[in-house]
Amino acid sequence: MTSALFSPFRLAGLELANRIVVSPMCQYSADDGSATDWHMMHLGMLANSGAALVVVEATHVERSGRITHGCLGLYSDDNELALARVIAQCRRAGTARFGIQLAHSGRKGSAERPWEGGGALKAGADPWPTMAASAIPFGDNWHVPRVVTEEDMARVREAFVSSAKRALRIGFDAIELHMAHGYLMHGFMSPISNKRADAFGGSLENRLRFPIEVARAVRAAVPKDIPLGARITGSDWREGGLTPDDAVAIAKALKGAGLDFICVSSGGVAADIRNPSEPGYNVPIAERVRREAGIATRTVGLIVKPEQAEQIVADGKADMVSMARCFLDDPHWGWHAAKALGADVARPRQYLRAGPTLWAPAAAKA
Ligand SMILES: Cc1cc2nc3c(=O)[nH]c(=O)nc-3n(C[C@H](O)[C@H](O)[C@H](O)COP(=O)(O)O)c2cc1C
To answer: Is 183 a catalytic residue?
Structure first.
């Protein structure tokens, strides 16, 4: 049996061994933006998960652009040094390639870690001022952000470029811009959170202006052979918000800015919005983006079973499939999916005895 999920895929100059991507997952375990031993353990574990690509969690381009006090950043030399140490070790010990997601939290910043409640930081917990497209809080009891000025836009754009250069120096194989889940970029794109009356609000073209400026600036700093992409929203899941039609238009605009891939996620633009709960809820939107924008497309969201992931790729609904929670539950998900689909994955030498022969009768006697 030939598996579509385990077929190789090329993104710009990057050869991926299969279509499985570990989705970026915040760990809230950094020290002033710097990776810690937790990241060594977490990313080290995922380096041998069978996924061709592991995308490192939302990594913030400025200190005040973090979501929580524990979020990862690439805004200082210390941040760069700490992440370089982790990634160098993961690459030595693991089989996966590594991407990084660059982000700015916007109005969802200055927040508690999920296990501390996940709301806005309270007085006494070192909260900081946030900013967003418009001065509208994310939800009840959230900080009111100040309105982003054109000076802020220029600074944030350069911060994205500077963090991308740091990521290149570290040796990341791919870079992804976080333009989903209600953070700064998505906040500009969505008519729910962007009520500006200037050149950065109103029509979709205007709302995309700042995110596209960022994408162009980062593209100019990232060599063509290193894949650069963006995670976008496929739907705001609210009347009057972004729709799958908009997602296609956003993907086309980002492709025009030189991006190589799009990851279609959704939701998160306001605190009271809930995503659908059916398996693969973003897949039909990804399929449209892939077909209509003609760009390499990844999807995510309640994809759990190997057969489900296989079908998505085999049917041409997405080129790559990313998964988050099931890799936390089963860090060898890729190995187990390979076994289920009659394929194989690279394993480190130390673990070769747990390869396919483990299941053959001869191996049982050895
Ligand atoms: C612990 C955790 C942290 C997350 N952090 C990020 C993140 O840093 N960036 C991002 O784009 N999505 C983040 N997400 C969303 C996931 O990448 C993914 O899109 C979502 O969990 C749906 O996929 P799943 O059903 O496979 O878990 C996070 C999800 C989890 C569970």
So the answer is: yes
Closest CA to 237 of 201, 292, 278, 295: 278
The whole-number average pLDDT for the span 101-108 is: 98
pLDDT tens-digit series, residues 131-143 = 999 999 999 999 9
Centre of ligand 1 to C-alpha 25, Å, is 5
CA distance 142 to 345: 45
Residue 109 CA to its chain's centroid (Å): 17
Mutate which of 21, 26, 74, 186 to test ligand 1's pocket (most atoms within 8 Å of Cβ)?
Answer: 26
58-72 residue pLDDT tens: 999 999 999 999 999
Buried b (16+ CB within 10 A) or exposed e, 22-52: bbbbbbbbbeebbbbeebbebbbbbbbbbbb
Classify 223 as helix, strand or coil: coil
**Alpha-carbon distance 96 to 16, whole Å?**
9
Dihedral pair phi/psi, residue 252, rounded to 5°: -60, -45
CA distance 127 to 123: 6
Task: Report CA(100)–ligand 1 centroid distance (Å).
Answer: 13
pTM higher than 0.85, yes or no?
A: yes
